[in-house]
Design goal:
Layout lengths: L5 H7 L3 H8 L10 H10 L4 E5 L5 H8 L3 E5 L3 H11 L4 E3 L14 E5 L7 H14 L5 E7 L4 H13 L3 H9 L5 H10 L2 E7 L4 E8 L1
Parallel strand pairs: 1-2, 1-4, 2-3, 4-5
Antiparallel strand pairs: 5-7, 6-7
Helix pairs in contact: 3-4, 6-9, 7-8
């Protein structure tokens, strides 16, 4: 995760859980089906899981309930503090991001929710290349995030937010690094993955990529 976003997450930590359950009208559609999306990601993971962008530990808790070994990566000290308070000593939550993170045991699944868009497309490709080298055949990436079927769909989403008066959402869509499914598909296939995309709500898709 780009470190330029760190202050945002430091400030958001205390209210994050209220946002994801729909207390912020502008982001209600973004977080529609939130719990089901996290469950879907957790159910597609196996083995030793590295989770990027742990946040307050909501996905982590679901992974642990499946008795998976989880190493959490989270750059925000405030988010890490809340997650550790929730989860206790059940797992490690380490400082790091999608590209720079502590070396761990062999990894079976990389997971993340609502965070990959903090990387530019160039950084996304760098991260995917790194995961491809670390995963064995059959290893997986399972990321849920806002992404679009085309550039036109992306532009329409911004206009729709503006038409509803959702200025914060529109600014978010304009300034963060949301990408398209064709771009991600090309990156993943180039690095030896077979990938599919599952639509979860108006904004969020799950990408499930398996190393071949």
């Amino acid at each position: 995760m780009g470190r330029e976003f760190l202050n945002i997450f430091e400030q958001w930590a205390d209210s994050y859980d209220q946002t994801v359950v729909g207390h912020d009208e502008e982001y209600m559609e973004v977080f529609s089906n939130y719990e089901a999306i996290l469950e879907e990601v957790a159910n597609r993971a196996n083995g030793h899981v590295v989770e990027f962008g742990v946040g307050t530990g909501n996905l982590t808790s679901k992974l642990l309930r499946r008795n998976l070994q989880v190493t959490g990566i989270e750059p925000s000290p405030a988010m890490r503090k809340i997650a550790i308070e929730k989860l206790g000593m059940q797992t490690q939550i380490l400082d790091g991001d999608f590209i720079i993170f502590p070396e761990t045991d062999p990894v079976d699944t990389f997971v993340s929710t609502y965070a990959f868009h903090h990387l530019t497309d160039e950084e996304k490709e760098q991260a995917i290349e790194k995961y491809g080298k670390k995963l064995a055949i059959g290893g997986k990436i399972v990321f849920a995030d806002t992404m679009y079927e085309s550039e036109e769909a992306y532009k329409e989403a911004i206009q729709d937010a503006l038409s509803k008066g959702y200025l914060n959402l529109a600014m978010d869509l304009k300034t963060e690094y949301y990408t398209t499914i064709p771009v991600l598909k090309e990156m993943l296939e180039k690095n030896g993955f077979e990938v599919r995309f599952i639509s979860c709500n108006k904004f969020v898709w799950i990408l499930e990529a398996e190393k071949k």
